[in-house]
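Q: What would this chain look like folded?
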Amino acid sequence: MAGHKKVSEGSPGNDSWEGVFYFHPDDGIYQDHFPGYPVVPGSLIVHAFLQAAREACFLPDYLTIENFRFREFLSPGHHAFRIELEEDRLKCQIYRGEKKLVTGALRR
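A: My prediction, written as structure tokens:
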């Protein structure tokens, strides 16, 4: 599998943490999604949040993916993320400045 995502600069806290997802621009998936205008597929974005949850030891035997909204296309590269723990779910967000680009939740 190509190195299309990784978490860097993550700093888990008690109830929230932030970091940076990196979607490698040389990943072959962008040849098909979309040629000439590479866009990170939503499934890779959700998978990056699952990977971050795993690294923070938040993965139980099952998770439900809830209400992911993709407000803008993400191009390959670095994207800041924030994850907040609220009872039985993780609120997930990719943002640029004050603007939320992706929002959703992972529920136990």
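The first strand starts at residue 7 and ends at 8.
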